[in-house]
Fold this sequence. Notes:
Blueprint: H1 2-6, H2 13-46, H3 51-55, H4 60-70, H5 78-90, H6 95-108, H7 110-119, H8 124-148, H9 175-207, H10 210-215, H11 220-234, H12 241-247, H13 253-262, H14 268-278, H15 280-305
Amino acid sequence: MLLLGGTRWLDQPAVQAWRTVCLAITVQAIPFLILGTLLSGAINAFVPADLFTRVLPRRPALAVPVAGVAGAVLPGCECASVPVANSLIRRGVTPAAAFAFLLSAPAVNPVVLTATAVAFPGEPAMVAARLLASLGTAAVMGWLWLWRGDEKWLRPALRRRPAGHEHGHAHGHGRWTEFRLGFQHDFLHAGGFLVLGAMAAATFNVAVPRAVLDAFSGTPWLSVLFLAALAVLLAVCSEADAFVAASLTGFSPTARLVFMVVGPMVDLKLIALQAGTFGRAFAWRFSAATTVVAVAAGALIGGALL
């Protein structure tokens, strides 16, 4: 009886809702985290060290937009883009280009754009606005890193090495063994931070009542800022966030666009993943700057197109 009484709180509706949301976010994100860590392991084990530096333009300022557009080829969410960007840096790609890829891949790939078109039928302007605002944010953040970024914010293992000393294949291991070890390390490391981010997002979902959402929808500028903050806290996967945005009918199209631009680039689970991969000093600075740029880009593009 004592044991039953002590666990009765687990059956409370709020606790059950928290558990459901936390599990849903984690289950939704894990396939893409696996995809990302598989790609990261494959890049480290099988791709020649100088391939990416040969493909991308030599000038970092030009490599940034090229890497941003290249993000369209990866049909995954932010959970996949973090380990891939990490692998690109270890292969000698300039961090600015890797970060542009990190931001664009979850937001402009064909799966996400198709989902947006389905969620907003008959509104091609919303799809175009999401594409332009997301690409613009990724490019601006890459250039901003070139201008003000400091590699001291990155973990020591990721800081740029002299030419000819990029990370190569591990000595003493075959390529398949290196692939397996790299995948195992990245998945276990990033998976723990993913769970922490999912727990934080679930707490917000349960703690904030629906009435609070309705209170912010009446003022245009306040609704934009509120949906930007909501995107960070809800941590919805980029393949699903368009349907969430479409359901927020009380908010303006621009506010809902900002929700879709910010969410794939900055949310609680992504901040946790970035902190675990690149370091906390990087994650907080980069996430704060990305939020500002994404809100500005979404508001400007939304005001012009929607």
